Amino acid sequence: MKLDSKIPAGKLSDKWQQFKSEVPLVAPNNKRRIDVIVVGTGLAGASAAATLGELGYNVKAFTFHDSPRRAHSIAAQGGINAAKNYQNDGDSVYRLFYDTIKGGDYRSREANVHRLAEVSTQIIDQCVAQGVPFAREYGGLLENRSFGGVQVSRTFYAKGQTGQQLLIGAYQALSRQISLGTVTMYNRHEMVDLVVIDGKARGIIARNLLTGKLERFGAHCVVLGTGGYGNVFYLSTNAMGSNVSAAWRTVRRGALMANPCFTQIHPTCIPQSGEYQSKLTLMSESLRNDGRVWVPKKIEDAKAIQQGKKTALDIAEEDRDYYLERRYPAFGNLVPRDVASRAAKVECDKGLGVSPTGLAVFLDFSAAIERYGKSEAHSKGMENVSKEQIMAMGTKVVEAKYGNLFEMYEKISGENPYKFPMKIYPAVHYTMGGLWVDYNLETNIPGLFATGEANFSDHGANRLGASALMQGLADGYFVLPYTIGTFLSKEIRTPKVDTNSPEFAAVEAEAKKRIDGLINVKGSQSVESFHRRLGKIMWDYCGMSRSAEGLLKGRQMIRSLREEFYKDVFVPGTSDEFNPELEKAYRVADFMELGELMMLDALNRNESCGGHFREEYQTPEGEALRDDANYTYVAAWEWDDQEPILHKEELVYEEVELKTRSYK
Amino acid sequence: MKLTLKIWRQKNNKSQGKFETYQVEANEHMSFLEMMDVLNEQLIAEKKEPVAFEHDCREGICGTCSMDINGRPHGPMQGTTTCQVHMRVFKDGDTITIEPFRSTVFPVIKDLVVDRAALDRIIQAGGYISVNTGQAVDGNAIPIEKDEAMKAFDAAACIGCGACVSACPNGSAMLFTSAKVSHLGILPQGKVESSRRVLNMVAQMDKEGFGMCSNIGACSAECPKEISLDNIARLNREYFKASLASEKA
Asked: Are B147 and B42 in the same domain?
């Protein structure tokens, strides 16, 4: 299969402008007759559905939640990037583009990333107009902060709840279209299969989660904004319901899965506390603006902390190793996520971890509290101030900046982070891989589009902080509404899709058989127990560091787990009722197939890049060692139950010179 | 810790529900929902039907979890959703009563799961700023005083869980509705259509069958995001103004 990325000709900086002026349009009278299905109502789905509705298309939007406002975009904390250069600190569209390409370790597509940087500024304007209450300066203008892997302040934020505020903005825009009748909303409907007719995506089968009934929906095209697949690891920062099934079902219908092994392990999460744990909670990367990461220098200190005999406060300044500042002086604590995560693992592997399990490092705010306290004292003209007073004033400043995150930490861990440094450890957070799409965000199945985290295109092998919100909204508000015209302009003569066709009947029958099959196994082990075991295999063999030997073993383990699942899973209840256990069961079944593909992809990529670290390929200092000569391509996989087939899209860098990524 | 759970079980909205009693072994580091997971794993191992409850992000922001714990929406902790309650607030030997949110406007779907679609319909009635994609001016073209922006943020922090309705003896959705009226009404971008917004949202709230507000304040006391009663005062003011002065009334 030849993969055509459909990147427009011309200079990189002109491509998108040029494309927009030449893309075929659909006239308003025709838009009214065209049906578009949008699956998922997170940032990428809701923004697309609302905007397509505004343009006049007939949109049907689907979510498995009880309301479109619940999507997991809501949990994003830190912020959204945009090349506004409001801070006059040297930012530009080019710099955002360059940072993203470099941050992604040179494994993303130049033209897509440049477009993302270009539309980033419009997103902020749009969100402000919708009423998103971003943080502001005293002068009433928008405030910014920094995120990892960059040297400018370009991140816009709303306390530690930026994702919530942006999603509510998109949800409100969507609600407006629902009330105007341009969007029909299907809550508690989960896509369980894709219907392809004459090679084009023409509809979906959705399960009504309240009744269990399979329902048919036809459209001229289908858009997936269904998010990522981090929950394949069981423990991740994803919501419990986040799953790969909608995307995976399209892979089973021929769509290609690109770079599935590129997963992001976020360095600052609250460590696991026990076997019962159901998910991990992120502490925003924005904390690394002010928090310093360290472990004890001496192994005996670390041991004492692990055994509860000492606390962080007992370790003298000279006995602390601020290892990020030591190893990466140029970026310090704000190195990109993959680098920070790996560095934490290195220290913990040496036995220097600081929790009972030995799997945690400190994130310490005392220096920042002192600095802010001194600055407050100075600005108030206070002299001879005691250390306590300074710390109290500084605490207030930190509280105003990160209060809700500190509260969340205290609720979960039971420790006061203003007094004791936070304990953090890396956890699965985001997946850069996803459905292969071309420049138009269209998959290799004509008429099937993917937006946001569900596609693979913009973040390469590692995503920079505050870029997921940017990409989700860029795709939904400003990219897809244009690029979808390339397909729909040729569909104006296509009549309404008839859901009584044999194609719909066949797909529905297959879905029914698959779902009923899970109920009928009537084994003895719970779905949850299989999911936990899958997660452990993924984390052990396809997590923060990978090796050929481990990946081969992991793949075999998943295969046998899958076999066991279909022989011994127990799903209570029936398929024609509200049955959350059954929902979990078919999602976990899909995760097992995806997990195998991730192992295969990681095994194929004989290099280390971004979040993909192969033990065999590292520099003497333990940094990732890329192989540009052989692996500057997108690995797009065609599913096959025995041996998935690899298709390659060569990545051509016209603008950026490939360099070893250095944050030293 | 050993706990006794009295949980509301109801097959669907047509059947009669009743309390069932369960014993569960938990530890203090678990979240409340992880304790529920332990119970469900136990029930599944006995080939019994697990307790249906809604949950998703488990970090207090999606607004999906929705149960009354010992008669209080989201349980005993101030400003905390059910998923953020940790078992360290309970003692060994405690009996915990768990029910679905209480409101006739939120019919029970199964066990602890209720239907809160009415809240979406209130937003659809006017809880937005009418701006199409691409129509916006530059983000810094509209300066907004920092404190005003913070006030709007505090109102916008509502997670739409419906705890306020469950807490209210009248079953009123005033706190929810007023949070949106305030969030958008405080900001200059949203002022333009504020009369229309407040009239339509209140009309929808009444149409759904939510009760009247009699300023009891249980809504705000139980709100996991501590949305202030000031918002209700602002809604009343805006509603009054719009009813008297606007031709739209």
From this structure: no
Note whether B14 and B55 are same-domain residues.
yes
Q: Is the pTM of this model over 0.90?
A: yes
> In this structure, what CATH number is given to the domain that contains residue B47?
3.10.20.30
- A51:B62 CB<8 A: no
H helix and E strand count, chain A: 19, 21
A501-650 is a CATH 3.40.50.11540 domain: no
pLDDT digits (tens, 9 = 90+) for A389-404: 999 999 999 998 888 8
Phi, psi of B24 (to 5 degrees): -145, 150
Q: Which of residues 129-158 of B touch A (CB under 8 A)?
A: 129-140, 142-146, 149-150, 152-153, 156-157
Closest residue by Cα to residue A224 from A255, A264, A180: A255
Interface test with A, best of B11, B128, B159, B180 (most A CBs within 10 A): B128
The answer, yes or no, to whether residue A136 has pLDDT greater than 90, is yes
pLDDT digits (tens, 9 = 90+) for A295-304: 999 999 999 9
Contact B86 A411 (CB under 8 A): yes
Kindly state whether residues B77 and B45 are assigned to the same domain: yes
- Whether residues B53 and B104 fall in one domain: yes
Is A276 within 8 Å of B38 when comparing Cβ atoms? yes
User: How many CA atoms are closer than 13 Å to the CA of A600, on its beta-carbon side?
Assistant: 23
- Domain count along chain B: 2
Q: Is the pLDDT of residue A426 over 80?
A: yes
Contact between A390 and A411 under an 8 Å Cβ cutoff? The reply is no
Are the C-beta atoms of residues B24 and B42 closer than 8 Å to each other? Answer: yes
**pLDDT digits 0-9 by tens, A576-593:** 999 999 999 999 999 999
Same domain as B157, residue B104: no
Q: Least CA distance to A74: which residue of chain B?
A: B62
pLDDT score of A650 more than 80: yes
Average pLDDT over residues A265-289: 91
Verify that B109 and B18 share a domain, yes or no: yes
For residue B145, the domain's CATH number is 1.10.1060.10
Chain A residues in contact with B150 (beta carbon < 8 A): 133
- Please determine, for residue A362, whether its predicted confidence score (pLDDT) is greater than 90: yes
Which DSSP string corresponds to A160-206? T-HHHHHHHHHHHHHHHHHHHTSEEEETTEEEEEEEEETTEEEEEEE
> Any chain A CB within 8 A of the CB of B123?
yes
Catalytic site residue from A115, A249, A337, A463: A337
Residue A167, pLDDT > 80, answer: yes
Domain ranges of chain A: 279-425, 501-650
Provide the pLDDT confidence category of residue B249 given band limits of 50, 70 and 90. Answer: low
B150 & B202 share domain: yes
A337 carries an active-site annotation: yes
> Of the candidates A591, A563, A586, which has an alpha carbon nearest to the alpha carbon of residue A516?
A586
Range of the domain at B31: 2-113
From B91, B113, B135, the end of a domain falls on: B113
Q: Which of A64, A284, A298 is nearest to A186 (CA)?
A: A64
d(CA A81, CA A100) in angstroms, rounded, equals: 11
Nearest CA in chain A to B125: A179
**Average pLDDT, whole number, for chain A?**
96
ipTM tops 0.90: yes
Residues B123, B223 within the same domain: yes
CATH fold for the domain made of A279-425: Flavocytochrome C3; Chain A, domain 1 (3.90.700)
Considering B71, B88, B113, which residue would you say is the last residue of a domain?
B113
Model confidence at B248, in pLDDT bands (50, 70, 90)? low
Which of A118, A134, A179 to mutate against chain B (most B CBs within 10 Å)? A179
A22: Cβ–Cβ under 8 A, 6 or more apart, which residues? none
The pair of three-digit structure tokens given for residue A199, joined into one six-digit string: 């090679």
